[in-house]
Amino acid sequence: MDSRCKHDLPEGQCADCLPPPPGVRPHGYRTRGGSAYHNDPTCDWLRRGQRFAAARGRETHEAVPVAWASVRPGTLEPCEYCCDPAWSARRLPAVAPASAPKPCLVRDGDQWYPGHLSWEAAPREDGLWWAKVRYRRDGQELTAVRNQHAVRPRE
After folding, report:
1. 103 by DSSP, 3-state: which?
2. Which residues sit opposite 142 in a β-bridge?
3. How far is CA 116 from the centre of its chain?
4. Which one of 20, 22, 77, 99 has the lowest number of neighbouring Cβ atoms within 10 Å?
C-alpha cells in the first residue's frame, strides 16, 4: 500500500504537503504582477524589480504576504537572492542550544525586562524565530514564549 498525505493523494504529489524548496520559508511575499517569491518584503532584488518597472512606466505594487503552499506551480519562482539557503543562514538569528540560555531583554507590554532565552530549533510556519524566555517583572519570575520581535540581546 502506498503512503498518502492528509489530502488522500500519493506522497510527494500534493503541493500543499510538500515542504518548500531549500532556502524558501513557508510564508513569504510577492507583488501583483511579479514572478518571484520572496522570503523578505524588503529584499534588494524585489526593490530593484520595482525600480525597473517604475523606470519603464509600469505600475508597481506593494509586497503582500503569501504562503508557499498556496502558490500554483509555475506561477512564482523562488527569488535567487533572498530564497538562497546562504541568505537564510546570514539573516536569521543563530540558534542557541537549549542547555545554554542567553541573556536578553524581553518585551512585556511596552516595557523591557532582563531575562534569559532559549531559541527553538527552527523558525515556525509564520517564518519567525521563537524562544522560551524567563524574566522577572514586579518581583515575580515569569516564563513565556516570545517571537524574535519581542526579545533583544542584553549586554
Report:
1. strand
2. 135
3. 22
4. 99
Residue 101 — left, alpha, or beta (φ > 0 → left; ψ -120 to 50 → alpha)? beta
Contact 39, 67 (CB under 8 A): no
pLDDT score of 3: 77
Q: Give dist(CA 125, CA 69) in Å, integer.
A: 11
What domains does the chain contain, in order, with CATH numbers?
Answer: 27-91 (no CATH), 102-153 (2.30.30)
Report how far residue 49's alpha carbon sits from residue 45's, in angstroms, rounded to the nearest whole number.
6
Contact status, residue 7 vs residue 17, Cβ threshold 8 Å: yes
User: Is residue 40 helix, strand or coil?
Assistant: coil
Per-residue pLDDT of 105-131, as tens digits, reads 999 999 999 999 988 877 888 888 889
pTM: 0.53
Predicted local distance difference test score (pLDDT) of residue 95: 44
Among candidate residues 71, 74, 46, the one with its CA nearest the CA of residue 60: 46
Identify how many contiguous H helices and E strands the chain contains and give both numbers.
2, 9
Q: Give me the pLDDT at residue 96, please.
A: 41
Please state, as a whole number, how many other Cβ atoms lie within 10 Å of the Cβ of residue 26. Answer: 15
